[in-house]
Structures
1.
Amino acid sequence: MYGRPTRAPKTVVVPPSGLPRHLLDLLRSKRGADVTFEVGGELFVAHRCILAARSSVFMAALFGPMAESATPTARVRVDDMEPRVFEAMLEFIYTDEWPAEVVDPTSDNKVEMAQHLLVAADRYLLDRLKLTCEAMLCDTIDRRTVATVMTLAEQHGCRGLKEACFNFLHRLPGNLEAVMASEGYQHMEVSCPSLVKEIMNQATAMSGSHVLEIDGYYRATGLLRNGGSVMSIMFAAGGCRWRIQYYPDGHSSGDAGWISMFLVLCDDDGDNGATVQARYQISLLDLDGNPVEWCRIGSGGTPVEFPGQGRGGTLVQRKMLEVCGCLKRDGFRVRCDITVVGSPAPATFLQDQEMSDGGMELKQERPKRIVQPNRKYVSDDWTR
């Protein structure tokens, strides 16, 4: 009996592309360069075709009707940019890779360079460089830099970076106060007063927590098929009234097999086109009442607008819930944390109620205290 033939070792190995290195050598050697830039008193030469291929701004500036450089001897002046930043941007244009100064973990200028490059990338419509800078700055936010980074995010349309900054402000007690005392915040007050207003609105926000206990879990999945839901009785949080909509088998056909939760602003709180800005998070709770880190949905640090359609989505896959240890006596609990920004009216409690339907019971924990700015309370009731 013959064994299976062994595969012969490869005789040809394809090396990684050398294109980035070759183009960087071309830039540094200045061979074939046909355009000169003057930046902060320093001169940089480059190749118009490469710049135009990478940036629509360079395309218009170098080849458009109003081209700034028609001959190799002409100079294009670049204002409001440091020479080292322009040089780093050129290297990225040629190689599609971070300059060595930014990659080096020992570099003291790493974060500062990323901030300057983000501004340059937005100016020359270099989308990948801009997103790369955003991603790096998201990973380096601290109390010293967050105000400056948030201002950059606001001025240059970086939504993900702005959200990361707000997440940082609300992550630990004292972060917001420390930032408001920083030099970067003073600059923000002058350059972005609307952003300061947004921060102050969130600082005076009113918060509440709502705990839902679902009994008869297996019964519920049998009674309510995909698209079927149970709606809670109104509860108060942040001066507004809310409901939570629970879908035992998902909200839509693509969510079958999942548990979906949606937070809904009650209609009478959204009359005449009025809207509410709020942050929210819906979390599965373990048996000790602690949120499960991998099982939560929400708006993150940036408030979203209510009313309209409920805000939420798929929370946890049913088969995962059944094995993760969060089910107890055929029931589980979720918590909804709500923070309404601005100056909502004082919250009031509603009457305690419970609902039972075919072995499925949706209960809520008793109210504990009236909500006040920067405090939390629990108030809950349910109905079909």
Note: The domain at 206-364 is CATH 2.60.210.10 (Apoptosis, Tumor Necrosis Factor Receptor Associated Protein 2; Chain A).
2.
Amino acid sequence: MSARHVERRPHCCLRGKGFVRIQCGELGSMEVGPRARVYAEVVPEVLDVAVKEFAGTEEMIQVGEKLFRPYDWERFDLLVLPPSFPYGGMENPRMVFLTPTMIKGDTSGVQVVAHELAHS
């Protein structure tokens, strides 16, 4: 969604490394919109706070679609990783990986979600 002139390829023809990411653990999830779900450890203080922090995800998708074009993927899910994850966020098709340091309780961490959305 971040450029006006994009070479379009069918999704089945994506090239490159890193299109498969696997996260395992005791995860829970909650919807934050019709196309977005937050996944996090099944620890109430992590999942519940993450859901509140990222509740505006669908609105971000809609703003991006108005500015650029329809979102290419069916879903834009968020996975809050353990504190050892070394980056703020990492975009992947259909799912963004986030460090729990993005959960600040005041929605100031959502700018990282918007940034990763622009990449995907």
Note: The beta strands are 27-33, 36-41, 77-80, 89-92, 95-98.
3.
Amino acid sequence: MLTIYKYHRSKRLLLMIKKNQVSEIFKKTLIIILFFIIYFTLVYGFNLFSFSSEQQSLLFDFLITFGFPDRKSAYFDLFDSIFISYHCILTLLILSVAYFVVWLYRRTKNENTESILT
């Protein structure tokens, strides 16, 4: 009778461990999905520039003063470099905020564990 009880108890413990592992994997997957949803919403949801024709001509004049050729490709080169910089800065910002949130969560979790132990 005692061995049957121990067997059921260990089996229940293994089930709890598996459920906790599955829930941890599920939480991590959800966090990653949420991160990408936020990232793509921020990056692709906001337009960088919406130039009028007058602003475009001023930009072309500005490019010519710096030695760029008077072509549309020069404008697109500048736009691409600004767009890439925007993506890099936004990615760094989102990653640093995510890192801070994880760091804060772990810190509070450790403090709660220490207070329970003492």
Note: The chain has three helices and no strands.
4.
Amino acid sequence: MEFEERYFREELDYLRQLSKLLATEKPHLARFLAEKDADPDIERLLEGVAFLTGNLRQKIEDEFPELTHGLIKMLWPNYLRPVPAMTLIEYTPDMDKSSVPVLIPRNEQFTTNAGEIRVDEVLPSDAKKEEPPPEESPENKTGIVRCDLIDCANNFKEITTMPARSLCQNFLNNILAPLHLYRQKSLIDATNAVINGASLTLTSIGRHLTGTASVKNKIKRVDRLLGNRHLQNEVSTIFQRITQKITRGMSRVVILIDWSAYHASRFQLLRASLACDGRSLPLMSCVVPSSQTANADVHERFLESLAECFSPGTDVIVITDAGFQGRWFQQLRSRGWTYICRVLGNHYYNVGNGWEKVSDSGTKASTTAIYLGEGLLGRDKNAQHEGHFYLYKSKPKGRRFKRSKERATRPSVTAKARTAGKSPWFIFTNSTEFSPKQVMKLYSRRMQIEQNFRDEKNPRWGFGLRFGASHSSGRVTVLSLIATLASIIMWLSGFSLENKGIHHKYQANTVKHRRVISLLKLAENVIRHSPLILNTLSLDAGLKVLQQRYTNMIMVY
């Protein structure tokens, strides 16, 4: 409170002096300000104004380094970064063996030993070669290479984080266009921090922000970002723009929808993800209190927002687990979408042989997917749904539940998961386009969204949202937006790197007939070990390749 008190006293003294000066020079305007006896009403007014102006002055001074450094870098770049030591590099090609001028590739790397100035490694950020005029012979001519040299020892953090930030900015510019410029920059910086290793918590993101401001001011900046009411109201629009950009040009999309506790039991997250090869791509999320879990009105608003992102001719396939029942099927059917849903528990179905319990269908299941027929789901006439039924039971995988001594026992949760895992897949759908094997293959991709949840919440394998302490739905919503943006950037980066064949260099083995490390883990390793490779990537180009290959990628049986 020392700084707050200092600002308050300085502003209060200034207001008192200014009020006396005004009363002396302009007595017809403010003669009461010059009275010797202090008026309590006037004192209360001056103290209130001093408190507000002192608080405003403190906030401005907290952000002053960021503002001034940003302006100076634009107006006078060399002021904060003086001209470094220069090195002349001479190439002596053998002209007898080459009849054409020697081409020095752009961004070629040079290595030098440390001299009087301790620079362990020198990397050129830009290199150009001035060739002799074409009419002159290259013999006895010297090419000049101009390089911007960077001191890696002093600027290593900036070098390793800037390629990722440029990647974020180039890809997210159009998506974040409706936002205020300051919120755009803050959101991109927060996404870049998560990509570069920050956990999905307020303080961790603040500590990983780049820039010259103090860590305290960076954490305050993230705090203001998460609590920004305007951004919280714009999150749904951003999600829609993300979905539109990713699914643009796709004739068919397979959407995975599921609920998950986020990040504690007080909130639930309803998410739609695009099924892909490997991890799913998160598209849209909605954070609500736990009391509204599986609420039909929440489902309706969510599907309405999702439907606005697709063109009328897009074939939408929605895959969900057994937690979606009742009006859910009607809501999907009214939009002309195909749904593939699992049914569990004591539900009844009728395919022409009378009403049967879903839980009793295990005797009919086998390791070969079968079509049971067309019929009704639910005996209640007000909640009956027409569709097609499929049944399949996979072979036992031989898994055993292993719990460490540190983990608390949760027998009810374990028993429920064991029962669901051993139960056959009883699938209900409104389409006959796919064979039984294809239906089961499509439903098996539903696990991708569970991996997506783990990527965000797990502190060991993901972004560590579980460590978060945010207690308002608005802040958790902004965190889910940052997680979505970071996941998309890393997924597309890994996809582009894999298409270039770079993934083989980061494997622990020589396997080439299948994927060994996930796309997100590949991007994480490249950012950690070789961040300058990101300068060669274009996420928009990678997204275009995904859109062209998507149908063949997802319809592999």
Note: The chain has a mean pLDDT of 84.
